[in-house]
Fold this sequence. Notes:
The protein has helices at residues 2-28, 33-46, 56-61, 70-74, 85-101, 110-130, 136-153, 159-174. The chain is mainly α.
Amino acid sequence: MLKVRGAIRARAEEFLKVLAEVEQSLSRCSDETTRLARALALLELAYLPLRPEMCPFCVEYADERCSECGYAETHGGICNSDSSRFVQLSDAIMNLGAAVKFSDPDGIAEENIQSSISSARMATDALLSELGRLDASGLMRAKALYIKEILRALPVRGALDQLRQICISRAELYW
């Protein structure tokens, strides 16, 4: 668990630095809000704690005994199976990321971007503050909540908001 907590902590702390950089860019380049909204949304998706080193079960079973893993037993099979809730969430997030990349987020106000940064920062700080006292199940619940909070914070609207809602509904089933 220590290794998983460390991986999540390192990634979350890196994400907080990235948020600060985006915030500084926002204050310097207010005429670039469209570009910053897209970049922020993609960064928020990229920093979600979905990597194997951030899963206590992947670390414990090291891809050798996946069928025995606690996630496989309770959440639709081994995580790399197309029917698993993890793959369904990951696919939805990748679809949202592709849509964000090729979207035109014109009209996203600077306040929306700042709100997204603030919400993401609060969610990340909350995750970091409880990380040390969580067991494997608690860690997975905290990750699921964090993922939903970051998805809710994304500076998107319109058709992208519909894709975001799909991701949130998949995150509800993640753990």
